[in-house]
Design brief:
Order of helices and strands: HHHEEEEEEHHHHH
Mean pLDDT: 83
Number of helices: 8
Low-confidence stretches: 251-255
Shape: elongated
Strand content: 5-15%
Number of strands: 6
Length: 255
């Protein structure tokens, strides 16, 4: 019965995950068999990608002379060194070997990104710490701006917990532990992508390696201690039941 319950809950979680990823604006119907006409489904006149900010506006700078958005502040000879790249970078040639007509673009500081260095990067150290502490909940993916990946990760963790509670302890624990450790190592070993740019590489390799090993060793010891304590309780209850039945049987024999 436990396996059937775990399988049913796992299938329900998988269906819920698939339902969360579906998109569309039309009401489901089957011509000639099912007609749904009284549903009020919200629609929009423009596609979702057209509602996003325009690429030109996001990656432009405001020309101080004209007051209008312009592209590539490094090619404006009227701007000073402190005015280009939003003050968070320097101008560098796109092709260092081009001597006749070099084209310059912004080379941003480590903490900034974008064509005009106007976007603050997410920090790798924060993403790694959130992954190490709250990885199974998907908070690391939310910090990186990856909402859909966060939902998928949370559903996988729920599936592992359901399997663990249903009696498949090794399978459920492996699902949660492997996905958790994979993202901790993936985020800590290099600057991963966010929804816009890569994170700021501010995590020292030695700190990442030592703290990650220490953290998961501590988690392993905690899990092993809890498992041993549970096994001791089960054996103690079994022994108490045996003692209770044996004493009851002896009393009946004397009667």
């Amino acid at each position: 019965s436990g396996l059937r319950l775990a399988a049913s809950l796992g299938a329900a979680a998988a269906c819920a995950g698939a339902a969360c990823t579906l998109q569309g604006c039309d009401v489901p119907h089957v011509s000639g068999y099912l007609v749904i006409s009284d549903f009020d489904v919200a629609t929009h006149q423009l596609a979702q990608w057209r509602m996003e900010p325009e690429y030109w506006m996001v990656n432009s700078y405001l020309d101080p002379d004209t007051g209008k958005p312009a592209f590539n502040s490094c090619m404006n000879p009227m701007l000073s060194v402190v005015e280009v790249c939003s003050g968070h970078g320097v101008c560098a040639p796109f092709d260092p070997d081009s001597k006749d007509a070099p084209v310059f673009f912004c080379k941003c500081d480590a903490a900034w990104g974008g064509l005009e260095c106007a976007t603050r990067r997410k920090r790798q150290s924060v993403a790694w710490l959130m992954s190490m502490l709250f990885g199974p909940l998907g908070l690391d993916e939310l910090y990186l701006g990856l909402t859909q990946q966060a939902i998928h990760k949370l559903l996988v963790s729920i599936l592992g917990v359901v399997l663990f509670a249903g009696g498949l302890e090794f399978v459920g624990g492996s699902i949660v532990g492997i996905t958790w450790m994979f993202d901790v190592v993936r985020i800590g070993s290099g600057p991963v992508l966010t929804s816009t740019h890569r994170v700021q590489a501010d995590l020292p390799r030695l700190a990442f390696a030592s703290l990650t090993i220490f953290h998961f060793c501590f988690v392993g010891v905690a899990v092993a201690t809890a498992s041993m304590y549970r096994a001791i309780l089960v054996r103690r209850r079994h022994w108490e039941h045996v003692q209770c039945y044996s004493s009851t049987g002896s009393a009946k024999m004397f009667v």
